[in-house]
Amino acid sequence: MRKNLLLYLLILFVCGAGLYFILQHGSRLQPGGTPSEESAQSRPLNVFPRPAPPQDVPSRSVVSVLIENLQHPLGILLLQLIVIIVAARALGVLFLKLGQPAVIGEMVAGIILGPSLLGLLLPSVQAFVFPAASLGTLRLLSQIGVILYMFVIGIELDVQNLRRKAHAAVLVSHASIIIPFCLGALLALFVYPSLAPAHVSFLAFALFMGIALSITAFPVLARIIEERDLSKSHLGSTAIACAAVDDVTAWCLLAFVVAIAKADGLGGSLFTIILAFLFISVMLFLLKPRADRILGDALRNETHTKGMVAGVLTFVFVAALSTEIIGIHALFGAFLAGVIMPTNSSLRSFLRERLETFSSVFLLPLFFAFTGLRTQIGLLNDAQSWLICAGIVAVAVAGKFGGSMLAARWTGMNWHEATALGALMNTRGLMELIVLNVGYDLGILSPRMFAMMVIMALVTTLMTGPVLALLERAKKKKRAASRRKEVVA
Known about the structure:
Elements: H1 2-27, H2 37-42, H3 62-70, H4 73-97, H5 102-113, H6 118-121, H7 123-129, H8 135-156, H9 159-195, H10 202-214, H11 218-227, H12 234-262, H13 266-300, H14 305-326, H15 330-339, H16 345-374, H17 383-410, H18 415-425, H19 429-442, H20 447-488
Helix pairs in contact: 4-5, 4-16, 5-16, 8-15, 8-16, 9-10, 9-12, 9-17, 10-12, 11-12, 12-13, 12-18, 13-14, 14-15, 17-18, 17-20, 18-20, 19-20
C-alpha cells in the first residue's frame, strides 16, 4: 500500500515538473519571444480577447454565470426535456389513478406547460423555459417521436385480423366515418367565415373538418378495452375492427386533403394523388411480400438484431421522407411502413418493445408539450367563442358517438353494447392531436380554431371512461333487479 502511494506521488511530481518546463519552453516559441511592451504593441490583435472588467464595475456573481450557462441552447433543451418528462409522467400517473388512460394526463400536461396555464400564471417562467427561439428544435424532436409512434401504430394494425372481422363491423365503421364527416363539413359552413384563415379554400377547410371529427384514437381505444378486460368480447373485437378501419380511412382521406392544400391547383393535387397511389402500391404489393423473408431471416439470426433494428429505422425514415417529398406528410409513410411489417407476432413484439417505450416515454411528451405551446385557450375570450367551442364538441359527439351507436343498434347489438361502442368510437386522443397539428402546419386551422379543436379532442377522450363506468353500473343494477325478481317469483 505504501509502495503504491510513493509511486503515485513520484509520478505526479515527475509529470508535473515536466509539464511546467514544457510550458515554459513553449512560451518562448511565440513570435517575439518574451512578452514586452514593444512586442505587445507589434503582436496581431487577439481574435477572441478577454477584456478585464473595469475597476468601477463589480465582477459578475456566480448565480449570473450559472444562469448564462443555462441559457445556452443545449442547456435550455435539456431543461425542457426534464420539465416535460417529469410533468408528463406525474400527470399520467394521476390520471391513471382517476381511471383515465395515462396518455390523457400527458395531453393535459402539454396544455399546462403552454401559454394557457403556465404562461398565464407565470409568464416569465414560461418564457425562460420555452423561449420562442428554442421551439424549432422542440418541434423537430416531437416530429421524430410522432413518426416512430405512427410506425408502431402501423405495426399494431393486424391486417389479417381486420379482414376476418371487417364484414361484421363494416356498417358501424362506415357510419362512424361518414356521419361525423358530413357533420364536420356542415359545421364548416358556419365557422368558415369567422374562424378559417383568409388564404384557405372552403374545400380544404370543409374536408379537414370532416376528417378531424371522424378520427378515433385506435391505440387509446385498444388500451381502454384491454384495461376493462373486453378484448375477447364481441363489443371489444367490433370496436377494434371499427377503429382500425376508421384510422386507415382517415389517414387516406387526410393524405388527399394535404395534397389539395399543398398543391397550387387541381393538376398539382392530381399529380400528388397519383404519386401517393403509386407509393402505396409499391409498399403493399412489392415490398410487403418480401418483408417476411428478409426480416424473418434477420430475426432468426440473433447476432444481427441490432443491424435489423437499424435497417428497419432506416426504412421507416425513407418511407416518411418519400411521402414528405410527395406532399402527403411524413406521418403517412411511417404508418404505412408499420402496416407492411411481417405478420410474425414475435417480430412485431420485438420491434414494438424497442421503439414504443422510447417514443412514448421520451419523444411523445415533447409532442404534447409542443401542442400545448401552440394552444392558446386565452384566445377564447368571450361568450361567443365558448359557445362555438361547445357547438363543435356537441357536433363531434353527435356524429361519432351517436352515429356509431345507432349503426351498432341497427346491426343487432342491444342498447347497452351499442352505447358502449359509441363511447369507445368517440375516443379521439393522440391521433386527433396529430391530425390537428398537420392542419395547423398547413395553415388550414387558425390559432383560435386550433385551440377549440384541441379542447374538443380532450373532452371527447375524457368522456369515454365515465360513460363506460356509468353503463357498467347500470348493467349491474339491471342484473341485481332481475335476480330480485327471480327470488320473489
